[in-house]
Design goal:
The complex is a heterodimer of chains A (813) and B (172). Chain A is an alpha+beta fold and 813 residues long. Chain A starts with a strand and ends in a 29-residue tail after the last helix. A five-stranded mixed sheet of chain B has the order 2-1-5-3-4. Classes of the chains: A alpha+beta (813), B alpha+beta (172). The structure holds FE2/S2 (inorganic) cluster (FES) (2 copies).
């Protein structure tokens, strides 16, 4: 189905957090203040690599208005953090390994005074030569950045199947290419920060963005030496994350300062600080050699991945696993020899980022496919079809995966599309000046969801009837903009035929939600859906049984509906409260934003059930309200919990996925061969991810992911020189603006799932961002004859002297 | 010769006269967010690139991170908190359109985006695609890919035009 507002009809659900966001009423965690709060700042390293000889804080401590100056000596617990491998110091003791490394933190009565205090801290360094590339870090004799070596290797991966060497010897054609991908910045608009509040009961309240409140709580507990229960992490709403706020950032400093000073501490990174200290996408070098038979059937694939993971591990190892798994694409290749290595350097921090290493792998693999097809003189889409894995083939790691038709469906849908059809007869517009060239390209991808085999990936949730008579769900997921709350509303209204005003949705607060895992890896929608599938039956049974006792009507004649329980045959037809513009027109802002005192309290819906009942004058079939039901029996009898794990492959392959989503993307570009500028004119995304629950959210995720991928392809690179960022802000680090985008983006959703599928809708947070780059570079090739192997696309490669006829494969100089 | 600056700052903010004792070199974004607790104006790049801090100063859009207190002394400033529909407490047609068309996700760019849209539609009630692009290219959004924003701006434009046309000309 072509996804747009019109097609979506009544499922076009207005987000409950809409009015607070468009009026500026919504308080983000970095907007929060308290009357007696003070301001925290972090002193970061002057060098990318140096020995710390001494740190003198006395002058800073003596300054008026300075409440605390902390260094490594002041960390009561573990002076390290990191979700998977805790190797990043809260405060460096003796060595700094990147320009974002923290040495001290201060709290003062104003941000200005805190800045003065930072200046007054005297650090004496012995500067060392930074390992500014993976080559330098892997060179024999290079200093080891971490003790846990060997060398500067964080992690290695390997896939070996068949006999690649022998197979290459028998191949008729081999393509050898090396691909480079940039250090992409998340560039979420809200920089890191929040408020840290110790309370009278001795607990610490942390209001700071994260993708996994419980993981933060666990890590903070280790650092400050508190029991986990004594920390409350409130972590939504978030002004964007894309993976970038998954690791701790300001939290250790805010927490330690607040506890030392006994008063609220506010932290808010400047953009420059955010760039310097924050995570980036792993820059990778991917060497690929792919061989095929005379008939164009893939025989052998050799891959060497080198990832620059920077100074600390963060999620570098899982990212490399994911990249390794995805560098085979959705293709059947009998002989495979893949090796990956993730290398410590002094180049900032690389970590988790939307697509999780898939983007780099898919760019490389799809590039190979286009080059091979060109050798065969074959349509590149047809070439892919011939080599695609069969429906029942194992996954890339030879693991069992859930069988779906997704791959062939996205292939076919794209094949049919008007945009891809243009590829057959390259669009030439005689009206265009001769230096403007156009081309069309396409790429396909399968992308794993969830954390993968062997990595704890717990899920669950809670459904209850709270004492206000609201159907309440609680998950440890976060709203960072993706529309999770709207999606939950739709799921619940679908399940119980209730109205949005019957709902209370709780997320992002460790005191109020059960442990249901993190909002990463495109997992939340699937996990929430599976949890509700498990919880709905016991919940409904209890609701109906109680209503039956109260009314004397047998349970099988009762159903849940707006406001409460109804006689089955008298349930009003238009129940599920899908908002219409007319209704929303009446929205009173005050109503909507009232009561958002707690960050998790999401705005109430527009039309209360009682109003609904009064207005419609339908009460005859109405049996009992949720509020009356909630007064029956003990409160905890109305609470239902579930716990389970994200589905994984039954085969023992670490990191191997079980559920995949599929995408095919076509792109049309225009290249100006005088300036080397590429403009994306048109794209079509076909996505197979199961039923579309929330069309507005779905389109938004694909559009947003696609534009982020456009930046990855054409302009974005956090350039480093000698391990220092050259691009330190959004004036030189160029993310797409409204002038750079392709306004024709079309999204086609394939909603089929195998019969009896138990996993429901798949997440689409990442899939929109993974396959655009190779589609664009293929289009550039059609336009100009240039094979691009490095991102962002180097403009100089596309510039041609005037009046020289272009010929494929002929270099201009 | 201009007289030396004192610490007294006045301006009309969202229709209300404000007096503050602050350094005249305080950035307008801090005046708003810190001193007046108007946190609807966001801060992101602090170098005039992202537009998250956009406000109207005497009706013109400005990046409040680039304006110092003394530069807006005595001026009329409108922030997102000052924008509403016909009555206070209702959504302005622009805000309404952003809600209906999914013109936001995380929402952090949204106040600035809405303010820039207001300035755009004030100047060009029926903006062309090019005018939309020029009017909003100073506002970055990392979430939406701008698709929803463009749809919202178009719809808001239609609505504002319909509203401003006299009833007999209005085609329903
Ligand atoms: S914060 Fe003012 S333009 Fe970015
Ligand atoms: S909605 Fe998140 S930056 Fe625009």
């Amino acid at each position: 189905m072509l996804l747009n507002r019109k097609q979506s009809g009544k499922r076009w659900h207005l987000r409950p957090d809409g009015a607070p966001k468009v009026t500026g009423q919504l308080q983000y965690l970095t907007d929060m203040t308290l009357p007696d709060m003070i301001h925290g700042r972090v002193l970061r390293s002057e060098y990318p690599y140096a020995r710390i000889l001494s740190v003198d804080t006395s002058e800073a401590e003596a300054l008026e208005g300075v409440y605390a100056v902390l260094t490594s000596k002041d960390v009561p617990g573990l002076n390290r953090f990191g979700i998977a491998t805790p190797d990043q110091p809260v405060f460096c003791e003796d060595i700094v390994r990147y320009v974002g490394d923290a040495i001290a933190a201060v709290a003062a009565d104003s941000p200005e005074r805190a800045a003065l205090a930072l200046d007054a801290i005297r650090v004496v360094y012995e500067e060392l030569t930074p390992l500014n590339s993976t080559d330098a870090a892997l060179a024999p004799g290079a200093p080891e950045l971490h003790e846990h070596g060997p060398g500067n290797v964080l992690h290695r991966t390997e896939i070996k199947r068949g006999d690649a060497e022998q197979a290459f010897a028998n191949c008729d054609h081999i393509v050898t290419e090396t691909y480079y991908t940039p250090r992409q910045m998340h560039a979420y608009m809200e920089t890191e920060g929040g408020l840290f509040v110790p309370d009278e009961e001795g607990r610490l309240n942390v209001y700071a963005a994260t993708q996994h409140g419980y993981k933060d709580r666990m890590q903070l507990a280790r650092i400050i030496g508190y029991p986990e229960e004594d920390i409350r992490v409130v972590s939504s709403p978030i002004g964007g994350s894309f993976g970038g706020k998954d690791e701790l950032n300001v939290q250790p400093y805010g927490a330690l300062l607040a506890l030392r000073c006994g008063r609220p501490v506010k932290m808010h990174n400047s953009r420059k600080e955010s760039v310097r200290a924050g995570l980036k996408r792993h820059p990778m070098k991917i060497e690929m050699q792919t061989g095929m038979s005379r008939e164009g059937i893939l025989q052998a694939h050799r891959v060497r991945i080198t990832a620059d993971t920077g100074a600390y591990a963060t999620l570098g190892a899982p990212v490399l696993n994911f990249c390794t798994e995805h560098c085979l694409g959705p293709y059947a290749i009998p002989n495979v020899d893949v090796e990956g290595v993730s290398v410590y350097t002094n180049n900032g921090l690389s970590g988790e980022f939307r697509g999780f290493g898939g983007n780099q792998a898919i760019f490389a693999m799809e590039g190979q496919m286009d080059r091979l097809a060109a050798i065969m003189n074959m349509d590149p889409w047809e070439f892919r079809r011939r080599n695609m894995r069969e429906k029942n083939d194992p996954g890339p790691l030879n693991q069992r995966i859930l069988v779906t038709d997704g791959l062939s469906q996205v292939w076919e849908a794209l094949d049919r599309s008007e945009l891809w059809q243009k590829h057959q007869s390259p669009p030439a517009d005689p009206a265009l000046p001769p230096w403007i060239k156009r081309g069309v390209g396409a790429a396909i991808a399968m992308h794993g969801a969830g954390l993968g085999y062997g990595i704890p990936d717990p899920a669950g949730g809670r459904l209850s009837l709270n004492n206000e008579g609201k159907i309440e769900v609680a998950f440890s997921y976060e709203e960072f903009g993706q529309g999770l709350i709207a999606t939950l509303e739709i799921m619940l209204c679908d399940l119980f035929q209730c109205s949005t005003s019957d709902l209370s949705i709780i997320i992002g607060d460790t005191d109020r939600v059960p442990h249901s895992g993190s909002s990463t890896a495109s997992r939340s929608t699937t996990m929430a859906w599976m949890a509700l599938q498990r919880l709905q039956t016991p919940f409904r049974s209890r609701v109906l049984a109680t209503a039956s006792v109260m009314s004397g009507i047998p349970t099988d004649e009762l159903v849940t509906g707006p406001g409460g329980v109804w006689r089955k045959d008298q349930l009003p037809a238009e129940t599920s409260e899908v908002e219409t513009p007319e209704k929303a027109e009446r929205t009173k802002v005050a109503e909507i934003v009232a009561g958002r005192t707690e960050s998790t309290q999401i705005a109430e819906s527009y039309l209360g059930a009682s109003q609904y009942l009064a207005k419609e004058g339908v009460s005859s079939g109405f049996v009992v309200s949720y509020a009356e039901l909630a007064t029956q029996g003990e409160a905890d009898e109305w609470i239902f919990d579930t716990k389970f794990d994200y589905p994984t492959t039954p085969d023992n392959v670490v990191g191997g996925h079980y559920l995949y989503t599929y995408a095919a993307v076509a792109a049309e570009v225009e290249v100006n061969t005088l300036t080397g500028e590429t403009k994306l004119l048109d794209t079509r995304h076909v996505v197979a991810a199961g039923p579309v629950i929330n069309p507005m959210g779905y389109i938004g995720q694909i559009e947003g992911g696609s534009v982020m991928a456009l930046g990855f392809t054409l302009t974005e690179d956090a350039v480093m020189q000698d391990s220092r960022y050259v691009t330190t802000n959004l004036d030189t680090y160029l993310i797409p603006t409204i002038q750079d985008i392709h306004t024709n983006l079309e999204v086609e959703a394939i909603e089929d799932l195998p019969e009896g599928d138990a996993f429901g809708p798949r997440g689409i947070g990442e899939i929109g961002s993974v396959a655009l780059a190779p589609a664009i570079t293929a289009a550039i090739h059609q336009a100009t004859g240039v094979w691009v192997n490095s991102l962002p696309v180097p403009r100089e490669q596309l510039v041609r002297p005037l009046n020289v006829p272009l010929q494929e494969g002929v270099s201009p100089s | 010769m201009s007289k030396p600056l004192d610490n007294h700052w006045t301006a009309v903010v969202n229709g209300e006269q404000k007096h503050l004792e602050i350094a005249q070199t305080t950035r307008l974004v801090d005046v708003l967010r810190t001193h007046l607790q108007l946190t609807g104006t966001k801060v992101s790049c602090e170098v005039g690139r992202c537009g998250a801090c956009m406000v109207l100063m005497n009706g013109e859009p400005v990046n409040s991170c680039l304006v110092m207190a003394y530069q807006c002394e005595g001026s009329d400033i409108m922030t997102i908190e000052g924008l509403h529909g016909e009555e206070k407490g209702t959504l302005h047609p622009i805000q309404q359109a952003f809600v209906e068309e999914g013109g936001f996700q995380c929402g952090y760019c949204t106040p600035g985006m809405v303010i820039s849209t207001k300035a755009l539609l004030d100047a060009h009630p029926e903006p062309s695609q090019e005018q939309i692009e020029t009017g909003l290219c100073g506002n970055l959004c990392r979430c939406t890919g701008y698709g929803g924003i463009i749809r919202a701006v178009r719809k808001a434009g239609e609505r504002c035009v319909v509203k401003e046309t006299s009833p007999e000309e209005t085609v329903s």
